[in-house]
Amino acid sequence: MSPGSRSWWWFWSCLLSLSVPSRTLELQELFKFGEEAGDQQLQPGSDSTAELPLNGSVFFFSQTFDKVYINTNGFVAFADPPAEDEYLGKMPSSFNMIAALLGDLDSSDGKGRVYFREDSSPDVLSRSAEHIKRAFPRDDGVEPTSALVVTWENMVAQGTLGRGDELDAKRNTFQLVVASMESSSCAILLYPIGGLQFLYTSVGGEAKLLEAGFNEGLVKSWWSWSASQGTYFRTTTDEETSIRDLTEKTTSGQAGVWVYEIGSSPFFASITPGMASSLRDEENTTEPPVTLLPRQPDEQTTMDFSTHEPQAGPEEEEEFPTPAPAENQPSYPDAVTATPGEAKPGVEEPYYEEEYPESEIVTPTYTNPERAQPRYPDPSEPRYPVSEPLQPRYTIPETPEPRYPPVQPRYPDPNPVEPRYANPEPVQPVPPYSRPHQPQIVVVDEDENLDVNVFRYNLETCAHNSHKCSAFADCRDYSDGYCCHCRPGFYGNGKDCVADGKPQRMSGEVNGRVFVGNSTFPVELGNNDLHSYVVANDGRAYVAISNIPKSLGPSLQPLSSLGGVIGWAFALEQPGYQNGFSVTGGVFSRQAEVIFQPGNERLSIKQRFEGIDEHDHLVVRTDLEGRLPAILQGSSVQINPYKEIYQYDRNFITSSSNRDYTVTSPDGAVQTRSYQWRQTVTFQSCPHDEATRPAPSTQQLSVDQIFVMFDADNNLVRYAMSNRIGSVHSSVPEQNPCFTGRHGCDINAACRPGEGLQFTCECTNGFTGDGRYCHDIDECRETPQVCGSNAVCSNQPGTFRCECARGFVFASDGKTCIEEDRPVDHCQRGTHDCDGPERALCSYTGGSAYACSCLPGFVGNGRGCRDVDECQQERCHRDAVCSNTQGSYTCQCQPGFHGDGFRCSPTSSEREKTQCERHRESAQTATATSGSGFFSFLRPRPAVGQYVPQCNEHGAYEPTQCHTSIGQCWCVDANGQEIPNTRTGPGSTPLCIDQAVTPPPVGPTPRPDVHPVAPGTHLLFAQSGKIEHVPLDGYNMKMEEAKPLLHIPDRVVIAVAYDCVEKMVYWTDITGPAISRAGISGGDISPVITTDLQSPEGIAIDHVARLLFWTDSMRDTVEVSKLDGSQRRVLFDTDLINPRPIVTNPAYGRLYWADWNRDGPKIEMSNMDGTDRIVLVKDDLGLPNGLTFDLDNQQLCWADAGTRKVECMDPHRRLRRKIVEGIQYPFSLVSFGRNLYYTDWRREAVVAVDRQSEKETEEFLPQKRSRLYGITTTPTQCPQAYNYCANNGGCSHLCLPRLGGFTCRCPDTASAGAPCEERNL
Questions:
Q1: Are the C-beta atoms of 190 and 135 separated by less than 8 Å?
Q2: What is the pLDDT of residue 225?
Q3: Rounded to an integer, what distance in angstroms lies between the CA atom of residue 20 and that of residue 10?
Q4: Torsion from C-alpha of 570, 573, 576, 578, nearest 10 degrees
Q5: What is the Cα–Cα distance from 1044 to 1032, expressed in whole angstroms?
Q6: CB 186, CB 262: distance < 8 Å
Q7: Where are the annotated segments for Disordered (predicted)?
């Protein structure tokens, strides 16, 4: 069985569940689409294309793309597609595409539509992650960062419109979602039940079946400059049933949903289908076939070993003897339609080797007695002389830190599997094979200055040093010291032990200075990431070095030996021979010198292998110094198989060889070059165990299937090679599959050789299974106390990791967690002994020290503070009464005096009447002459029909004035003037804001600045001349800790909003009128807008685009500006009567506001640039006062004082639902998590509502009872959102987001400076 067969075995095993019945996909279960979802629409037609630039990248096969092309004909391309007659009916095409359902489709009748968008909203990303997790159930930490959503709705077959034969009624609807992670992309294809009504379209006068798949297009072969047809991974076949099956079968557990990994970086081998994880009945099901087309249809897809024999010379015959008889050989067609359900057990899988086949093809016997595994044809063949492996869905990251700390990424297999090739490539003819160079053995003197970072044994015993051994090793005492020995099932030097057969990862950095060609300036390498992955049970190694400059990358290609030492360390061992890790463990140093011919350029390589870290990665540091021969950009390099002889001493290894390589230039010129290579490896073995079997003094490393390339698009150098370590002497090569690598064992299994060709597969330590398939053991779950007390266990593939809990560190034994001895900020932690925060202040002074001090108004030592009785200090006026309070006091003039308590003056018997009182008296006395009867002179009464103003207890106009004779009410300002458009008819009362300033309390006037709030989320709400805050504990209000945030005693604050970026609160007041702001951490008030305002009653912030929006109910406008008030612009000034609440949706560039016009209340929506204004809600509304937008759940909610309801709506799909009803008089509303909080005028309270239970949960009544106005929250982190104006979008002035783009706009008032340019993007 071939090296690729282990992964193919997994691949076919996954496919066995694809057709199992499951719940079908309904049309309404598609991802949201249409205008309200933020989609753009493709131009109607039969062959329309639209380019969509992407904010993120899509990985497709081994490339990355930052833009896509959406086409009518059911596909998304990564290059501008040609006319449809160049690819319809002629697949595979020359360009790369995802064919969701390819055919000659038409949308020109107005019913068919193609929608598309890039979406990074939490809802879309979380739903994409759910599909991927169902398809790949062993993945952990699936975190898409962006998604491309394309929907073909009601598409018809071209030429069927208006034919009158009912074909025009047949329409197809389907959807493609491409979810991209940090280093890979997945395609989610959705085919709803009933969504595929036709199966054929007419192409060239013939009926052609629709098809789906992934096409790589033309690919430049690395051994020549010419391009050849790449992989076409078809998900349908030429049978009608395969199209019908799209709605009935699955790769993800729900019929109609198909998930595939379509690309990854830095390594990629093939398209990988998902694996259904929760299907029901597995009986009587058939497999949807996967058709794998060859790269070049005119060439043989696979190598038939029964007919192909290498032209070997006498020396080559040792390595490539005559193949086995034909009866032992499988044969393979040009294109393979692989249908697992029809595969027959016992069919041997071929082994593909690009340049030279192995000695013979054998049929090993698998001796597991429990069950016989079926064999399936392996339709794979590497794209290049050596292909890259199928990396995990989250591939080796470019940085040494794990992407999902502390848990390592999970994969469809617990670790990345060997390459799977969905599409074979024809084997190239074997070139003339010259006699290999016999390696010249050169003894290199050890460099005394070489920094060998190795461990050293001493004369101590295991009793004090066993913790220095690997967790998988035993410590043994000897007469003069101790040694560590790996246990059975592991290999290494005892300090580092690795489970037999376990794949190994490496990470590190590359530094140095390298000159290229004749350049006099070196290319500097600084901490460039090196990542490697080794399939230990077949000796295959992959290496990638990132961030390589283009001036250096092509010239690094011949230097495969950079990764060759990794191949030697984990080479497949032949009987009686040991690879580098078995001899040295993970700690050794290597120094190599390379001399290139014919230019005599020299390069020095120093590498330090520092052992296996806590992430189970082998750490390596590499330094390069010297010169490389120049290789042109775009050139490819081919390195022929070679052999290398290693000579061993106890702590010293040397090797050398001469190597040839071929450079093919972009113009097709071919040049053969060579270099001489010699190296030394130094390490420290245990000197005390003389019985330890030393490695043979001479061993030969055989390296073939060598692949090198420079990926200019991603600035990556990649190396891959297969490695075996064995004898230098002529002998018959071992034929047991364990020694050839041609076994069917899982990638996490060790191959155990038996007699002859027999073998067994045994899951490596930390995994369980039958050896053909192994899955990870979760040690943390199965043995909860494995890490001991005060420690946290983190499961990892094949192992686990113990981490000390917070406040604890590892003791000297490296295992026990002890309490951490480090400075502690007791003030922040709350472990100080200062008096309560309402009386004392804790100040951190460094180390673990702190100081306590009493707050103003209190005295004491800070640990105990008592109130100061300021009344004893005679601070009030002699004609005033002093009242002591905790930390303060108040002064109030005695009866018969007036003043602020600090100054009191005698008062007259009657105070001066206010304007309202004089107005009221005038209206009442106007009837004195018209009154009649005996009692008419006792008190004035208004005439019938006479309006008499209503005044409050302070003599100010009541904000709502009514004329009972005519049954009308209206709102007035502080001067009693009627506010336009507020008059209502009989039976209804307008919602009026009190425009009069509430008289301040008698006593000291508080300073108008901010009292800092504690960390955490708070509710902020406005109450006349102040803004208060209530801390939240989860969703519960900590009512006892409510305090004023800001005193503005001469203002009426209406709306409040919070900027989570700069942590500032913004508010409107209608007495200024003005819009102002202040930081919640303390400080003074800053004015933002102070002119051209009348009654600003609503305010909203886009924290991403840094924009401020507000409504003015007197000016009847919706306006926008920068957060500092600059660049002001009116968005709307028509069709507005009483606009009040306003909110933003930064992720979609949307703006929502409500107008409580009693004759036609409504909630409207537009883009932030003022385009696409529509009425979102107009039915069943009364007085929509409060409005809030839940960015996480994309829900718009409002509180209505007319209908007395709180309701929510999905503005994209217009799905509306009632949350609570029967409330009293809500004014403002805000959402936080699952809760809604609103202020109520009648209850004079803040009320919490649980949206899930649809019930009120608690009520907060401020100490001072009066009307409450605006409310908002202060989240600790900003909601995740992005729009095109995050960095002002390159606009000269205002950048205003809109759905799918942004608009550059000029302010209404031009200012001196740079000229303003308006444009739409």
A1: no
A2: 54
A3: 18
A4: -10
A5: 15
A6: yes
A7: 278-420
Give the other-Cβ count within 10 Å of 658's Cβ.
Answer: 17
**Dihedral (Cα; 44, 49, 55, 57), 10-degree rounding:** 130
Query: Which of 664, 746, 391 shows the shortest CA–CA distance to 544?
Result: 391
Spatial distance between the Cα atoms of 441 and 699, rounded to a whole number of angstroms: 12
Going from the C-alpha of 174 to that of each of 131, 202, 248, 447, the distances in angstroms are 16, 20, 14, 67
Distances (CA, A) of 1299 to 21, 1120, 1166, 1285: 39, 17, 9, 12
Instruction: Provide the H-helix boundaries in 175-291.
Output: 240-248
pTM: 0.37
pLDDT at 374: 35
Q: Hunting for tokens 């807008």 — which residue is that?
A: 1089
Cα-atom radius of gyration of the chain, to the nearest Å? Answer: 39
pLDDT value of residue 815: 66
My answer on whether omega of the bond before 1073 falls inside 30° of 0, hence cis, is yes
Torsion of CA 745, 746, 749, 753, to 10 degrees: 0
CA atoms within 13 A on the CB side of 459: 2
How far apart CA 1067 and CA 1077 sit, in angstroms, is: 6
The closest of 1019, 1018, 1068 to 1048, measured between CA atoms, is 1068
Q: Given the structure tokens 């600090």, which residue do they identify?
A: 902
Residue 85 CB partners (closer than 8 Å, separation 6+): 204
Token readout for 683 is 């390490």
Classify 1016 as helix, strand or coil: coil
The closest of 232, 265, 259 to 58, measured between CA atoms, is: 265
Helices assigned H by DSSP within 539-694: 553-556, 561-569, 580-584
Give the strand pairing for 1162-1167 and 897-899. unpaired
**Distance set, CA 525 to CA 529, 530, 628, 650, 720 (Å):** 10, 12, 14, 34, 22
What is residue 113's predicted lDDT score, i.e. its pLDDT? Answer: 94
Element (H, E) at 827: helix 826-829
Q: How far apart are alpha carbons 969 and 979 in whole angstroms? A: 11
Beta bridge partners, 701, equal 644, 725
- The pLDDT tens digits of the residues spanning 940-987 come to 444 556 788 988 877 888 888 888 778 888 888 878 888 877 787 776
Tokens matching residue 1169: 């640039």
Cα dihedral 890, 896, 900, 904 in deg (nearest 10): -110
In eight-state DSSP terms, residue 209 is E
Which residues does the chain have with pLDDT short of 70? 1-22, 161-169, 221-226, 276-459, 689-695, 730-733, 812-815, 908-911, 926-945, 987, 991, 995-1014, 1049-1050, 1082-1083, 1312
User: Measured between alpha carbons, how far is 1181 from 1198 in angstroms, rounded to an integer?
Assistant: 10
Q: If 0-12 CB within 10 Å is exposed, 13-18 middle and 19+ buried, where does residue 1034 land?
A: exposed
Residues contacting 1206, CB < 8 A, separation 6+: 1197, 1198, 1199, 1200, 1218, 1219, 1220, 1221, 1223, 1226, 1229, 1236, 1238, 1249
- Answer yes or no: are the C-beta atoms of 210 and 237 closer than 8 Å: no
Separation between Cα atoms, residue 1266 and residue 1024, nearest integer Å: 8
Give the DSSP H or E segment for 1069: strand 1064-1069
The set of residues, in sequence order, having a beta carbon less than 8 Å from that of 405 and lying 6+ positions away, is none
Q: If you search the block for the tokens 């848990």, which residue do you land on?
A: 407
Kindly report, residue by residue over 450-477, the tens digit of the pLDDT.
343 333 444 578 887 888 888 888 888 8
1083 DSSP assignment:
B
Residue type, 1138: N
CB atoms within 10 A of CB 1234: 13
State the chain's maximal CA–CA distance in angstroms: 143
Grouping H, G, I as helix, E, B as strand and the rest as coil, residue 911 is coil
Is residue 673 classed exposed, middle or buried when 0-12, 13-18 and 19+ CB atoms within 10 A define those classes? middle
Which helix (H) or strand (E) segment is 1232 a member of?
A: strand 1226-1232
The DSSP secondary structure of 1180-1210, one letter per residue, reads S-S-EEEEEEETTTTEEEEEETTTTEEEEEE
